[in-house]
Amino acid sequence: MSTKSIIQASHVTKTFTEPVEFKVLNDISLDVERGEFVVLVGPSGSGKTTLMYTLSTLDTVYDGSITIDGVDIKSLTKNALADFRNSMIGFVFQFHYLLPDFTVLQNVMLPAQRKGGLTQDEMEDRAMKTLALLGVADQAMKRSSKLSGGQQQRVAIARALINDPKIIFGDEPTGNLDTKNTSMVLDILNDLKTEYHQTILMVTHDVEFAKRADRVISIRDGRIVDTEEHYSPIPAVRP
Amino acid sequence: MKQFFAQRPLLRIAWVHLFSKKRQTIVAMLGVMFGVTVFIFQAGLLTGLQTYFIEKTVNTTAHLHIFNDVRTSRPQVLDLNSDTSSTWNVVRNQKPRDEERRLRNGYQILRDIERDPRVEGVAPYLGLQGILRYGMSQQAATLAGVEILREDQLFHIKDNLVSGQLQRMETLPNGIILGFGLADKLGVRLDDNITVISSKGVALEMKVVGISKTGITLQDNTRAYVSIRNAQRLLQQSAAYITDINVRLRDVDIAQSVATEYSSLYRYKAEDWKAANANIFGIFRIQNLTVSFVIISILVVSGFGIFNILMTIIYEKMPDIAILKAMGYRDGDIRVIFLIESIAIGSTGGLLGLLLGFIASKIVGMIPLNIQGFVSVQYLIINFNPLFYLAAFCFALTATTVAGYFPARKAARFDPVEIIRSR
Ligand SMILES: Nc1ncnc2c1ncn2[C@@H]1O[C@H](COP(=O)(O)OP(=O)(O)OP(=O)(O)O)[C@@H](O)[C@H]1O
Ligand SMILES: [Mg+2]
C-alpha cells in the first residue's frame, strides 16, 4: 500500500437489482493521492454519484474493496464507520442540506460537536475562522434559511471543513448556483487545494471545474474510460 | 438555556423539531395530560371510597365470626330412611329447630380463644329481631346482645357515639344504644324510654343511653345494642345462650387461616371478614378493572398521538437526518433525538396531568355532597396516595416512550444515500 494514496479502490462493482438487474459500477479500480484534486465526469446516468457514494463510505453495498487512509472500509462496524466519516470526510452536495431552524454557526459546529474533544469556545472559534475563510463570517448568527443560495453553499463547505477532514467529497456542488456563485465556489475549492493541500474528489458537469483539476476521471456505463483526458460535455446515449 | 443547548446538539434538534410543530406537540401533550389526570382522579376517588369502606367494615365487622351455620331446611327424615328413586315422600310443615342457632359451650370457646396470643379481643353476641316502640312510632330493628366493653374493644363503638356514654350500658340494667338513623326514625333522643318487643312476645322497657353513627347506612338505620342478658331475656333463654362469637386479631391479614383453624377446632363455622364481605370485594374488583380499562385506553390513544406527530416530523426532517448521518452522527444519535422528543412530550404532559389530577381531586374533595347510600359520607373521600402519582407518571412515560420508540427506530434506519439521491 503506497502511503501517497489516500483512497484506493480495487475492482469495485455494484449492481442494482431493482427495477431490473443493472451493473451501475463495473470493476472500477482507482487511486487518489494525498492533496490531489480529482474530478469525476461522465454522461448522466453513467454512475458518477454512485461511485462517489461508495468511495465516501456512505454506500457500503458493493463488491471489491475500498481503502481510505489505510483503513479497509468494509471492516468497520456501523458506528465506527460513522465516527470515521465524522473525522475523515467532508461532504458538499448539490443541495446545501443546512438545518433550516439553526443559525449558520450552529450548523457549522454540528460535525465538531459530534466529534467532541474541543471546548465550546474552541469549537466556536474554529467555526468562525472557517466561515471567515469562506467569506460568510458576517452571516454566522443568521438562521441558515435566511441566506442566499451561494451563501448557503459556502456555509455547507465550511461545515464540511470544520473537522479538518482528510478528503472533501462533492456531488455537483455548483449545480444549483449561478455563474457568479459558481466561480466563487470554484475559487474556494481551488484555494483549499493549492493553499491547504486538501484532497478533493468532485463529481461535476462543469467544464471550468474540470479544467482546474489535477486529474479528470471519465466514467461511462459504470467504467472508467480514460483518465487524464478532459471531458467533453456532450451527453452520451443512455444504455 | 442557550448555553445548555450549545453543548447538546441532539437536544437542540429535538427542541427545534417540537417547536416547529407547536400545535401538534401541544395536542399530543394534552392527550398524555388528560390520561394522567383521569388516572389520578379516578384511582384516587375509587380507592378512596373503597379504603373508607374497608376501614369501616374492618371496624364494624369482626375479623373472625364464629357461628352455627344453621341449615333452615333440614333433610327430610323420611327421605333419609327410604329410597327416593322409586317412591315419592311428602311431609309437609317440617320446621327448622329453633335451638340449633345456639353455640353450645359458647362461653367456654370464648375463654379458650381469649387465651390465643394472636387474638386481641373476643366478644359474645346474641342477635335477634325486634320491634322498637316509642309512643306511636315503631321500627323493626336488629338487636345486638353484647357485652358492651368487649364489643367496644372489637368495634370501637365509643368512637361512633354521637351522644351518650358507653359506661351507662354497664351501670343501667336496661340501657340501649340506637343507630343514628333508627333513633331519627323513631323520634327518640338520649335518655328517652322505649319499649322493645321480641318475636317471643317479650316486651322490655329500655332507656336510650347512646346514639351511634358508623357511616354505614344500613347499620345506622337498623342496629341497636342491648346487653346480652337482656337479649337472652327477650328470647326467653338461659344465661349461657349465645349465637355468635366475634374475634379481633392482632394481625387482620391472618384472618383467613385462623378461621380455617377455628372451624375445624370448634366444629362451628368460622368466617373471616373478607369472606363475609366477599360480594363487596367482587364489586371492587369489577370497578377497578373498568377504571383500569378506561385509563389504559386513554393512554394508548395518547400514545398514538405521539406516534403520529413523530412520524410527521421524521418524514418532514428526512434531509436533516440524512445529512446528520453523512456528517458522522450515529444511528443511536438519531434514535436519541426522537426518543427525547417523545419523552419530552410524555413527561411534560404527565407532569401537567399530575398537577391537574391533584387539583381536580382537591376540588372535588371539597364539594359537600352528603351522600346517603352504601355508606354515608359528607365529602367524597379521595385517596392522595403518592404511589398513584408515581404509577401514573411511570405509566405515561412508558406509553409515550414505547410510542416514540418505533418512529425513532425508523428514523435511525433511514439510508442517507436514498434520501440525498431523491433530492
Ligand atoms: N437505488 C437505485 N436503484 C436502481 N437504480 C439506481 C439507483 N440509484 C441509481 N440508479 C441508477 O444508476 C445509474 C447511475 O446513477 P448515478 O446517480 O450514479 O448517475 P450519475 O452519473 O450521477 O448521473 P447524473 O449525472 O445524472 O447525476 C442510473 O441509471 C440510475 O438510474
Ligand atoms: Mg449524479
Structure description:
The complex is a heterodimer of chains A (239) and B (423). Chain A is an alpha/beta fold. Chain A has one domain (5-229): Rossmann fold, CATH 3.40.50.300. Chain A is 34% helix and 25% strand. Chain A contains seven helices and ten strands. Chain A has helices at residues 48-55, 78-88, 104-115, 120-133, 149-161, 179-196, 207-212, and strands spanning 5-16, 22-33, 37-41, 63-68, 71-72, 89-92, 167-171, 199-203, 215-220, 223-224. In chain A, the strands form two sheets. A six-stranded mixed beta sheet of chain A has the order 6-7-8-3-9-10. In chain A, helix 3 (104-115) packs parallel to helix 5 (149-161). Chain A is globular. Mean pLDDT of chain A is 89; it is low at 229-239. Chain B is of the alpha+beta class and 423 residues long. Chain B has two domains: 2-58 and 280-422, no CATH class; 64-87 and 99-273, no CATH class. Chain B is 57% helix and 19% strand. Chain B contains 18 helices and twelve strands. Chain B has helices at residues 2-6, 9-20, 22-60, 77-81, 106-114, 148-155, 157-160, 168-171, 180-186, 217-222, 228-234, 255-266, 273-276, 278-316, 318-326, 331-366, 386-413, 416-421, and strands spanning 64-67, 119-134, 137-146, 161-164, 175-179, 193-198, 203-212, 223-227, 244-249, 269-272, 368-372, 376-379. In chain B, the strands form two sheets. Chain B has a six-stranded mixed β-barrel, surrounded by four helices. The longest helix of chain B has 39 residues, at 22-60. Chain B is elongated, with a radius of gyration of 33 Å. The model of chain B has no long low-confidence stretch (mean pLDDT 88). The A-B interface holds A 49, 53, 58-59, 78-79, 82-87, 89, 91, 93-95, 97, 99, 101-102, 106, 109-111, 113-115, 120, 159 and B 6-7, 9, 12-13, 16, 19-20, 319-320, 322-333, 416-417, 420-421, 423. The structure holds adenosine-5'-triphosphate and magnesium ion. Residues 16, 18, 24, 42, 44-50 of chain A line the site of adenosine-5'-triphosphate.
